[in-house]
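Protocol step 4 of 6: structure prediction from sequence.
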Amino acid sequence: MVRSLTFIHLFIILAVGYIGGALLFREIPIAASEKWIGFFDSRVISTVDGSIWRPFLTLLVFFVLTFLLSVNNKTRHTILFFGAIKCVLFGMSSSFLLFSGIKIWEYAIWWFPFQFISCLIFLIYCVVLSPPYFSRVSRKARNLQAVPVLAGLSLFIFLLEITIFHFLIR
Protein backbone atom coordinates (compact mmCIF):
# COMPACT_ATOMS: atom_id res chain seq x y z
CA MET A 1 0.00 0.00 0.00
CA VAL A 2 2.77 2.44 0.87
CA ARG A 3 4.58 1.83 -2.42
CA SER A 4 1.46 2.50 -4.45
CA LEU A 5 0.85 5.68 -2.45
CA THR A 6 4.37 6.82 -3.26
CA PHE A 7 3.91 6.31 -7.01
CA ILE A 8 0.52 8.00 -6.96
CA HIS A 9 2.16 10.88 -5.09
CA LEU A 10 4.92 11.09 -7.72
CA PHE A 11 2.51 10.97 -10.66
CA ILE A 12 0.45 13.76 -9.09
CA ILE A 13 3.58 15.89 -8.67
CA LEU A 14 4.55 15.14 -12.27
CA ALA A 15 1.10 15.93 -13.66
CA VAL A 16 0.62 19.12 -11.65
CA GLY A 17 4.17 20.27 -12.48
CA TYR A 18 3.69 19.59 -16.19
CA ILE A 19 0.33 21.36 -16.33
CA GLY A 20 1.73 24.19 -14.21
CA GLY A 21 4.59 24.60 -16.65
CA ALA A 22 2.19 24.69 -19.59
CA LEU A 23 0.05 27.32 -17.85
CA LEU A 24 3.15 29.29 -16.85
CA PHE A 25 4.25 29.33 -20.49
CA ARG A 26 0.90 30.86 -21.44
CA GLU A 27 1.18 33.62 -18.85
CA ILE A 28 4.76 34.84 -19.16
CA PRO A 29 6.35 36.55 -22.18
CA ILE A 30 8.15 34.38 -24.72
CA ALA A 31 11.51 36.06 -24.01
CA ALA A 32 11.31 35.19 -20.31
CA SER A 33 10.27 31.62 -21.02
CA GLU A 34 13.12 31.24 -23.53
CA LYS A 35 15.60 32.18 -20.81
CA TRP A 36 14.30 29.50 -18.42
CA ILE A 37 13.92 26.91 -21.14
CA GLY A 38 17.43 27.70 -22.40
CA PHE A 39 18.74 26.93 -18.94
CA PHE A 40 16.87 23.63 -18.89
CA ASP A 41 17.69 22.51 -22.43
CA SER A 42 18.86 24.83 -25.20
CA ARG A 43 17.95 22.27 -27.87
CA VAL A 44 14.30 23.18 -27.34
CA ILE A 45 14.89 26.76 -28.45
CA SER A 46 17.22 25.95 -31.34
CA THR A 47 17.75 22.44 -32.69
CA VAL A 48 20.85 23.74 -34.45
CA ASP A 49 22.44 24.42 -31.07
CA GLY A 50 22.31 20.75 -30.15
CA SER A 51 25.21 20.61 -27.74
CA ILE A 52 25.33 17.55 -25.50
CA TRP A 53 27.10 19.36 -22.66
CA ARG A 54 24.48 21.88 -21.61
CA PRO A 55 21.66 19.36 -21.04
CA PHE A 56 24.12 17.00 -19.36
CA LEU A 57 25.31 19.75 -16.99
CA THR A 58 21.71 20.64 -16.19
CA LEU A 59 20.95 17.00 -15.40
CA LEU A 60 24.07 16.81 -13.26
CA VAL A 61 23.22 20.04 -11.42
CA PHE A 62 19.75 18.74 -10.56
CA PHE A 63 21.14 15.45 -9.24
CA VAL A 64 24.04 16.98 -7.29
CA LEU A 65 21.99 19.84 -5.84
CA THR A 66 19.27 17.53 -4.55
CA PHE A 67 21.85 15.18 -3.09
CA LEU A 68 23.55 18.08 -1.30
CA LEU A 69 20.19 19.24 0.02
CA SER A 70 19.49 15.76 1.34
CA VAL A 71 22.61 15.79 3.51
CA ASN A 72 21.24 18.42 5.89
CA ASN A 73 18.05 17.64 7.82
CA LYS A 74 16.91 21.28 7.63
CA THR A 75 16.96 21.40 3.83
CA ARG A 76 15.71 17.89 3.20
CA HIS A 77 12.09 19.06 2.82
CA THR A 78 13.02 21.06 -0.32
CA ILE A 79 14.11 18.03 -2.32
CA LEU A 80 10.67 17.24 -3.79
CA PHE A 81 10.36 20.95 -4.55
CA PHE A 82 13.32 20.62 -6.94
CA GLY A 83 11.65 17.57 -8.46
CA ALA A 84 8.55 19.68 -9.04
CA ILE A 85 10.67 22.45 -10.57
CA LYS A 86 12.08 19.96 -13.07
CA CYS A 87 8.51 18.90 -13.95
CA VAL A 88 7.48 22.55 -14.42
CA LEU A 89 10.43 23.12 -16.75
CA PHE A 90 9.40 19.99 -18.64
CA GLY A 91 5.88 21.40 -19.07
CA MET A 92 7.19 24.81 -20.17
CA SER A 93 9.57 23.23 -22.66
CA SER A 94 6.86 21.01 -24.06
CA SER A 95 4.53 23.97 -24.51
CA PHE A 96 7.29 25.96 -26.18
CA LEU A 97 8.04 23.11 -28.59
CA LEU A 98 4.39 22.73 -29.53
CA PHE A 99 3.97 26.51 -29.80
CA SER A 100 7.02 26.85 -32.05
CA GLY A 101 5.59 24.41 -34.56
CA ILE A 102 7.63 21.27 -34.04
CA LYS A 103 6.20 18.31 -35.87
CA ILE A 104 4.09 16.20 -33.56
CA TRP A 105 5.92 12.99 -34.44
CA GLU A 106 9.26 14.60 -33.51
CA TYR A 107 7.74 15.70 -30.23
CA ALA A 108 6.23 12.26 -29.63
CA ILE A 109 9.43 10.37 -30.48
CA TRP A 110 12.10 12.69 -29.13
CA TRP A 111 10.97 15.05 -26.42
CA PHE A 112 7.93 13.83 -24.52
CA PRO A 113 8.71 10.17 -23.72
CA PHE A 114 12.32 10.74 -22.71
CA GLN A 115 11.63 13.83 -20.62
CA PHE A 116 8.65 12.13 -19.00
CA ILE A 117 10.75 9.11 -18.01
CA SER A 118 13.62 11.36 -16.94
CA CYS A 119 11.34 13.44 -14.70
CA LEU A 120 9.81 10.31 -13.20
CA ILE A 121 13.26 8.83 -12.46
CA PHE A 122 14.33 12.14 -10.93
CA LEU A 123 11.23 12.20 -8.73
CA ILE A 124 11.97 8.63 -7.60
CA TYR A 125 15.52 9.78 -6.84
CA CYS A 126 14.09 12.63 -4.75
CA VAL A 127 11.88 10.20 -2.82
CA VAL A 128 14.83 7.90 -2.16
CA LEU A 129 16.80 10.85 -0.77
CA SER A 130 13.92 12.16 1.33
CA PRO A 131 10.94 9.82 1.65
CA PRO A 132 7.51 11.42 2.08
CA TYR A 133 5.92 11.37 5.50
CA PHE A 134 3.71 8.35 4.80
CA SER A 135 6.55 6.05 3.76
CA ARG A 136 9.07 6.78 6.51
CA VAL A 137 9.54 3.78 8.74
CA SER A 138 12.00 5.42 11.07
CA ARG A 139 14.47 8.28 11.20
CA LYS A 140 17.49 5.97 11.19
CA ALA A 141 20.25 6.00 8.62
CA ARG A 142 19.12 6.45 5.04
CA ASN A 143 19.24 3.59 2.59
CA LEU A 144 20.99 5.02 -0.47
CA GLN A 145 21.53 1.80 -2.42
CA ALA A 146 19.14 2.92 -5.15
CA VAL A 147 20.90 6.25 -5.78
CA PRO A 148 23.62 4.90 -8.14
CA VAL A 149 21.06 2.75 -9.94
CA LEU A 150 18.74 5.71 -10.49
CA ALA A 151 21.62 7.95 -11.57
CA GLY A 152 22.82 5.29 -14.04
CA LEU A 153 19.31 4.77 -15.37
CA SER A 154 18.89 8.50 -15.80
CA LEU A 155 22.22 8.71 -17.65
CA PHE A 156 21.17 5.84 -19.92
CA ILE A 157 17.85 7.56 -20.75
CA PHE A 158 19.75 10.80 -21.37
CA LEU A 159 22.20 9.13 -23.77
CA LEU A 160 19.36 7.41 -25.60
CA GLU A 161 17.53 10.72 -25.93
CA ILE A 162 20.67 12.49 -27.20
CA THR A 163 21.18 9.72 -29.76
CA ILE A 164 17.62 10.01 -31.06
CA PHE A 165 17.94 13.80 -31.16
CA HIS A 166 21.12 13.72 -33.23
CA PHE A 167 19.90 11.07 -35.68
CA LEU A 168 16.24 12.03 -36.12
CA ILE A 169 15.78 15.67 -35.25
CA ARG A 170 19.01 17.47 -35.96
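Step 5 (inspection) to follow. The chain has one domain: 2-169.
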